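Can you make up a protein sequence with its backbone structure tokens?

===
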Amino acid sequence: MVDTTPPTIAELADLKEKAIKAVSAAISFISDIDSTLAMIDGLMYVMQPFKSGRIGIKFIKNNGKLRPQARVFRQLRSRRWVSDYVNHKGLVRRVRKSREFEANHQLLRTLCEHVTNLIQMRMDMVDRLKVADMSFTNTLKARGAYMKQTSSLIGAMHERIAERFEGEMEMDDE
């Protein structure tokens, strides 16, 4: 006879471990991207002259979470520096090529290409984690009530059948 016993929690632990490893790997990937962006920001800081139009990467708190943003810095008349947000997709076009910036122009363009790719990869990975979380949450919410009803219905049917065939039928637990 075929074994009809459901898997135990211990047998399902392998799935749990795989899910935990996948989420941990995704978070580690995001952390590696953030540290690489911080290193690129350090390189950009050293390679550009202190003139308006400098490009940098700053981690800005948005909705309680730190997110990397590409920023263009400009100096006000009061000698104070302010930064403006720029979209990471057009960052390569923002690299200045004037006399002061010309020495490292090509290297800065390459760094900006990397910044664009890294920020996009980070956004994609965060979106994948959000979609997975919403998927599990919504699936459990939508199907939880059905599962409880079905389980109680099958349990009641099992009890009625067991009462009906009390001594006449034996359930095989092989």
In short: The first strand starts at residue 54 and ends at 62. Residues 9-164 form one domain. The longest helix spans residues 105-164.
